[in-house]
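Quick bug: AbiEi antitoxin N-terminal domain-containing protein output formatted oddly.
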Amino acid sequence: MQRLSALNEDLRLLDSTRRGLIVTSDAREFGISDKVIRRLERDGDLLQLSSGVYADRLRFEAASSWERFGLRSRAWTISGRRDASASDFSAAAILGLPMWGEPPDLPRVLRPGSAHRGHSRTPNGRIRFGWLPPHHRWPFSSVAVTSAAYACIDVIRMGSRLQGLTVGDYALAVGITPEQLWDVAENLKRYKGMQSVEWVLSRADRRSESPVESAGRLACLTFGLPEAVANPWIIGGAKPRRVDLLLPEHGIVLEADGQIKYNDRPDAATIVMDQNDREREIRDLDFDVLRFDAALAVGRPAELAGRLRRMIARRRGRRAPDCWSMQPPPGWSEPGLGQGWPDPTFRGFL
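Here's what came back:
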């Protein structure tokens, strides 16, 4: 019993050292043989993610799809060559970038070398070669990973337009500079998908505060509507109100639902009351308000665009209010990173 307790303690320590992974080479240094690890796998306690790399089965199965993909990506990177770095969607999962939909089937790593060498694919992951200077190779979460700027450009060029704009907005919001993004883009200019990169980088907005806001802006851009201004201040009411999106030429405010969960919150009634007061004050200043959520902006963007067009048509002939500003009123300040964005755990590298 004492030996079993010691084994569990050692496994917990190994797991915490590698942030959710157990590596057989580390286990051997603790006197835990490969035979013991294989027995734990047979008993259903551990799950092999890559050669010599395991995870706690119950915790892995309870994780989200992107969290599981992040663990598999780190395992694939650990089991690979020393010069390999988790890249594109794998880097995004490890760094915690905001991602829509489901992850790819296989983790990916990038090794320095000519992109003309092509890709290789195994049952555990994919390997590709390309431009990867040392300063874009970060030691993060116990593995090597491409820098946040590099990962963002890869995701923008490989992913959907929605995914690209979301990651572009997030990159600027957390402090990655446009110059850093354009520098990576310039070095990858012969890669596939760079037209999408140019489109996103010319429209990304650091003021966007959530993936849902990015989706709302994309609907406007895609369906030929006026470009939405992100998070301006509405002034003139009982107190300044910072709204999610504004079509300034038409006096239409778009409010993105979904960033705050009301269920099981003791202050839910207060939140709802403040939201109602906020909307009433905005309407009293002669703005129209359209609320939308991810299901509408992502699943039915044409419907969102149609609602906006009808609202614009109904306002025809009415003067758009000009009581708004991109700068905070005296005594007020811009908030920090929007609550809808994941906390950038890589901030120390920026």
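Actually, after a second look the formatting is fine. The mean pLDDT is 93. Closing.
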